[in-house]
Amino acid sequence: MNPLDFLIPAAHAQATGAPAAGGSMMSTLLFPVILIAIMYFLMIRPQMKRQKEHKAMLDKLAKGDEVITSGGIAGTVVGLSESFITVEVASGVQLRVQKGAIASVLPKGTLKSA
To answer: Is 67 exposed, middle or buried (0-12, 13-18, 19+ CB in 10 A)?
Structure first.
């Protein structure tokens, strides 16, 4: 038995000249629609929600915020531009990173306590 037999019904010759039932066409089209809906709600929608939250976080960034980059570098924001952020990682050591590289904003005072 072929493993795809449960997905694709086998074609059988009909003894009578009656046309095929219309319900099989509906079930054939319903299966892909259900799969697309499941993919949307389990994969696409949550990803879009995360992207929207990340963009909102980046829009709220201000000088003095403590951040962690996607590379794991922690520092304090000392400068902002449209696409880059200057992060001070130690006294007198500043790095310019892209805005999208900011992974999260830390609560105030987190870096001093670490």
So the answer is: buried
CA torsion sign, 45 to 47 to 48 to 50?
Answer: positive
Under the phi-then-psi rule, with left for phi > 0, alpha for psi from -120 to 50, and beta for the rest, what region is 56? alpha
- Give the position of tokens 């963009």: 55
What confidence tens digit (pLDDT) does each residue in 16-56 have? 555 555 567 888 888 999 999 999 999 999 999 999 999 99
Token pair 């609560």 in the structure block, residue: 107
Same domain, 56 and 69: no
Whether 11 maps to a domain, the answer reads: no
Domain count, the chain: 2
Tell me which residue of 71, 69, 75 sits closest to 102, measured CA to CA.
Answer: 69
Same-domain status, 39 and 74? no
Q: Which residues of 95-113 are buried (b: 16+ CB within 10 A; e: fewer)?
A: bebebebbeebeeeeebee
Domain containing 53 equals 21-60
